[in-house]
Automatic annotation (TrEMBL):
The keyword Chaperone does not apply. This is Flagellar motor protein MotP. GO terms for cellular component: plasma membrane. PROSITE patterns: MOTA (PS01307). Keywords: Cell membrane, Cell projection, Cilium, Flagellum, Membrane, Transmembrane, Transmembrane helix, Transport. InterPro entries: Flag_MotA_CS, MotA-like, MotA_ExbB_proton_chnl. The keyword Thylakoid does not apply. It is found in: Cell membrane.
Length: 269
């Protein structure tokens, strides 16, 4: 189940707040307005939009909003629950046969797990099951890689357009060398585009791309556990052996918690 990932908006807001506080501390409230320059914003945003339009098709760009929104959501992965589910399925399959799992499959909400268990119930060979499930993982990784590429490219283009804006500002400044008093202010305005581009890239696009990559790694990790579990189910592995095999995917802390829950459930029984 997905829920709001508060760390993403919190990180963006904190980044902006700390930059603002640093400016206020050093320059004071009166100078804060000098850090806002509409032409510099237009150069960075306009250039970024133009570069993205050149780089991607319309259908790919339509995904950008959904991809960015995905970094504001977190998928909860219950590894311990997954192991318990397969140990229970394995126990039933050992006692009543694989076909008895057909009724259990209807209660499984995850389509990847459901597909794996159904393939095992249908008596498909283990090599074929592994091939089918691994192919699905590869397809998922490829789709996620394409989506992440939108943010990667935006993270590359934003600082570049900031630099272009700075160059434009420098050219305009050099045209007014006859007025020395305007050099300092004009130079400051020219550098603002670099500031905007760098902030946009390092506070929004690149961190979001990193978060999506991390989410993909976690999702693939969970699916690898499912494949191992389905293989154990298909081969009629002893539930205790299957459990020991799957718990190697748990971290030390998770394993400790899992053992405690397992012991409590035995005591209650």
């Amino acid at each position: 189940m997905k829920k709001l990932d508060m760390l993403t908006p919190l990180g963006v807001v904190l980044g902006i707040v700390f930059v603002g506080v640093a400016i206020l501390t050093n320059a004071g409230p009166d100078s804060f307005g000098s850090f806002i320059n509409i032409p510099s914003i237009l150069v960075v945003i306009g250039g970024l939009i133009g570069a993205m339009l050149v780089s991607f098709s319309f259908n790919e760009l339509k995904q950008l909003g959904r991809v960015m929104a995905e970094s504001f959501r977190v998928q909860e992965h219950d590894t311990q629950g997954l192991i318990s589910t397969f140990v229970s399925l394995s126990d039933k399959a050992r006692r009543e046969g694989l076909l008895s799992l057909e009724t259990e499959v209807e209660e499984i909400r995850d389509p990847f797990i459901r597909k794996g268990v159904l393939l095992a119930v249908d008596g498909i060979e283990s090599d074929v099951i592994t091939d089918i499930l691994n192919t699905e993982i590869i397809a998922i990784e490829e789709r996620h890689r394409k989506n992440k590429r939108l943010l990667d490219k935006a993270g590359e283009y934003a600082p570049a357009w900031g630099m272009i804006g700075t160059l434009i500002g420098l050219v305009l400044m050099l045209q007014n060398l006859s007025d020395p008093s305007s050099l300092g202010p004009n130079m400051a305005v020219a550098l603002l585009t670099t500031l905007y581009g760098t902030l946009l890239a390092n506070l929004v696009f690149i961190p979001m791309a990193s978060k999506l990559a991390m989410k993909t790694e976690k999702e693939v990790f969970m699916k690898q556990i499912v494949i191992e579990a389905v293989m154990g189910l298909q081969s009629g592995q002893n539930p205790r052996v299957l459990e020991e095999k799957l718990t190697v995917f748990l971290s030390g802390e998770e394993l400790h918690t899992y053992r405690l829950k397992d012991r409590d459930s035995v005591d209650e029984a």
